[in-house]
Amino acid sequence: AYCDTLNLGGGMWRLPKIKELQSIAGVGNTPAIDNTSFVMPAVQQGQSEPWFWSNSVCYFGALRGSCVLGASTGQTTLSATISSGTGVNNVRCVGCSTQAPPSAGLLVRWSRNGGTFDSVDNGRYTVSSGVVTDALTDLQWEQAASINTMAWSDAGTYCAGRSTGGFSNWRLPNIGELQTLIDYTVAYPAVPINEAYFPNTAATDFWSSTLRTGDEGNAWQVYFSDRGWSGYSSLATKNSVRCIRSCYQQQVNSRYAIASGEVRDTVTGLTWQQASTSGAVSYTNALQYCSSLSLNGRSWRLPEVAELSTLLNYGASYTGLLMDASVFAGEPAQTFWSSTPLAPGGSNPTIWIVEFGGVGVGEWGRVEWADPTAASARYNVRCVY
User: Fold this and answer.
1) Is residue 270 a contact partner of residue 385, using CB atoms and an 8 Å limit?
2) DSSP E strand boundaries for the chain
3) Residue 345 Ramachandran class (φ > 0 left, ψ -120 to 50 alpha, else beta)
4) Positive or negative torsion for Cα 247, 249, 252, 257
5) Residue 153: exposed, middle, or buried by beta-carbon count in 10 A (0-12, 13-18, 19+)?
6) Upstream peptide bond of 31 is cis (omega within 30 degrees of 0)
């Protein structure tokens, strides 16, 4: 919480990863962290040197816990193994420049181990001074959305003028960022967002900053009024706004790594099957296809909708494939199944789908749903690990 609320130099701060802490600890130096450049804190009661918290998890034999680094020795260990009468360690925050964020697609940094999206709380969100910090993405959100709806051109101005938490670098989120707030486990007509951290969110539609490429009279939005599906609307439409702050340490130059028929996403940590099914199949067959896929001996599965939607490339023209065509070569510009039901329960639940394109559809890029029992419900499949 200390780093999340630090307002120093107008930038965004966070607790560092253990490798980031190690980068300021010189090998063979005494002390390991240069005390002429960094103010050395006092040694805590019961400790032999100052120890610093990281946000990383470490293993020490059978033990698992928070990683800490010794300022004098540069040693890395578990906090639980340090002899301390107070049970506290020091904090040194790491920041980043507030460079311009990507205008389209998902380039947020998913920090959760394994990268798998999780709508369950599990400590994902923390709140301080009206600012919600998301530990999954390292994004910060205004807890309160705009009171009034507004046209798209006014939404950016609104965010730029916000000062929540004492910060001045608020902006309108791109569509990939906005989609990370959707809680697909919430049943209609409730608002599909974590109500504990975003209370009193109106059942309205929310603007993103992302224009529809090739059709710039429209911009992408998320329908928090209706289960959280994503679509687009005229810039004159009046929608609600929730502003964001981000910490992009560096842009992702090579997001995807390809090997042996697999594609690893360095942003989310997910591994995808490079080649999808050769044709459209039913939902039941989609589940069976992924569960029986033996590619490289992995346990494949049909992706959740939040995972599948991260492959959408909103920077591509809406008339073609909204996916990285250089990575997923020969990909059909079609709709794909997710494994996520529209709402919990039911023997034949409605299932979320993602439209990466479709001749004659005209709704490329939408995230919506389909009845899997309908004869026409045949879509493509890409498995995830």
Assistant:
1) yes
2) 12-14, 51-60, 63-70, 76-78, 94-96, 125-128, 131-134, 139-142, 205-211, 218-223, 229-234, 244-245, 256-259, 262-265, 271-273, 335-341, 351-355, 367-370
3) left
4) negative
5) exposed
6) yes
- Tokens matching residue 237: 């439409």
Give 96's strand partners: 12
Cα separation of 322 and 373, whole Å?
Answer: 27
Q: At 346, phi and psi to the nearest 5?
A: 95, 140
Q: What three-state secondary structure class fits 292?
A: helix
Task: Give me the helices (H) in the chain, please.
Answer: 2-5, 18-22, 152-160, 175-179, 283-292, 305-308
Tell me the C-alpha distance between 274 and 323, whole Å: 12
Three-state SS for 140? strand
Query: Cα 51 to chain center, whole Å?
Result: 30
Per the structure block, which two tokens stand in for 23? 């980068």
Q: Classify each residue of 299-325 as buried b or exposed e, where b means 16 or more C-beta atoms within 10 Å of its C-beta.
A: ebebbbbbbbbbbbbbebebeebbbbe
Token pair for 4: 């999340």
Using CA atoms, how far apart are residues 21 and 15, in angstroms rounded to an integer?
10
Q: Among candidates 221, 224, 337, 234, which has minimal Cα distance to 288?
A: 337
pLDDT per residue of the chain (385 residues) written in tens, 0 to 9: 688 778 777 667 778 878 778 888 876 677 888 888 888 888 877 788 888 988 777 766 677 777 888 888 888 887 776 655 456 788 988 876 544 454 444 444 444 443 344 444 556 788 989 999 887 777 889 999 999 999 999 999 999 999 999 888 899 998 888 988 998 888 888 999 999 999 999 999 999 998 988 888 999 999 999 888 888 999 999 999 999 988 655 555 678 899 999 999 877 778 999 999 878 999 999 999 999 999 999 999 999 888 898 898 888 887 888 888 889 877 778 899 999 888 765 455 799 999 988 644 446 778 888 999 999 899 999 999 8
Q: What is the DSSP string of 1-30?
A: -HHHH--STT-EEEPPPHHHHHTTB-TT-S
